[in-house]
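Researcher: Please translate sequence to structure tokens.
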Amino acid sequence: MRILRYLQETTIGRALIAYFVDLPRWVLLNIAFSVTLLPSAFALILGHVALALCLSFPAAWVLAVMIRFFAKTTDERKPRWSLLWTNIGDYKVVLSAWLCLVIAGLCLLTPFYVVAVIPLILVLMLAPMAISNAECLPVTFWEAWRNAFVMAVHYPIVALGVVLFGGLIAWGISVSGGALLVALPALWASITVYTVHDLIHSLTKQGNTQ
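Model: Translation complete:
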């Protein structure tokens, strides 16, 4: 079909194809993300922002699982559930990214919140790319973060765009009263992974990735 050929020629198009081809899997993971996000949501409703941040790791892990699965589809492979417990070492990148985000978020609750804004934005730009790097390439913990930093330096608009798209996704979920939680988180993961995958190829040609 002509429309499929057109979609395969663009980053977002390939991400959308990967999303809709295996839609039941992504809906199931979106539901899992919603469930794991409930403790943080309740804590936030009660006004315990710090607790909400600390309780967010299960949801962050589910989002990382989505990224892991989508990373396999970039090579036209079908993700398998067994991937959940293989290459467990890559989850160290997820844990470190989550810790950095939580620490930066907690700093926003202190009198030094003005100073914490820039580090928070930087971590938000680097974290998705570091996690995607760990899943798309056979790299070490430090190489994943190093590659993410290189990408953010070479393509700051793209890195910021991933963050802004995540903000748009969060806004859409909020406006829908949470209904879009069954669709949008995996969509963000797919576009993020395919964006990073294309950046990897671009930087590899320039010799800037490990």
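Researcher: Any highlights?
Model: The mean pLDDT is 89.
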